[in-house]
Amino acid sequence: MFQHLAESIYPQAKFLGELRGCELKPLFFAADLFVLPGTGGLAVQEAMAHGLPIVVAEGDGTQNDLVRQENGWLVPPDDLPSLERALRQALSDPVRLRRMGAESYRIVAEEVNLEAMVRVFVEVLWKVANH
C-alpha cells in the first residue's frame, strides 16, 4: 500500500527491503527521507547525521528528543492514516524536505550526540565527587 502511494506521489521512491551495516551508507547519502514506522534507536540518529528529514513512530520516548516539526514527523505507532499524512506532507515539498534534513543534521551535530551525553555524565560525576 505505502509503496504504491509513494510511487504515485514521488515516482523516484525506492523500497529495498531490510539492509544492515555498510550496506546502508550509500543509501543514506542518496536518500531524500528516512521513514521508520516502528521503534528505532540508533537508526534514527544515523539518518539524521546524514542530513535526512525523518518520519518516526513514537516508541520508547527517545524519539521526543530527536523529532521536531523542523526536522520531521512523529507519528503514533500502528496508525496508518497518520503515517500516510506524514508521507504525503513530506513528499509534497522537496525544498522543505531539504531544509528539514539540514535541521536534522544540526540537531545531532550540536545537541543530541555522544559528546553531549559524555558531557552530562562528567558533570554528574563531578557533582557527586565534590559533595
Structural class: mainly alpha
Relative strand content: 5-15%
Rounded to an integer in angstroms, the radius of gyration calculated over CA atoms is: 17 Å
Described by strand count, sense and barrel closure, the largest sheet is: 3 strands, parallel
Q: How many discrete domains?
A: 1
> How are strands sequenced across the largest beta sheet?
1-2-3
Number of strands: 3
Distance between the termini: 58 Å
CATH H level, superfamily name? Glycogen Phosphorylase B
The level 1 CATH classification is Alpha Beta
CATH topology: Rossmann fold
Low-confidence stretches: none
Number of helices: 7
Note down, in words, how this protein is organized:
The protein has a single domain (2-129), classed as Glycogen Phosphorylase B (Rossmann fold). 24% of the residues are buried. It starts with a helix and ends with a helix. The chain has 131 residues and is mainly alpha-helical. The chain has helices at residues 2-9, 25-30, 42-49, 63-66, 80-92, 94-110, 114-129; strands at 34-36, 54-57, 72-75. Helices cover 55% and strands 8% of the residues. β1 (34-36), α3 and β2 (54-57) form a beta-alpha-beta unit.
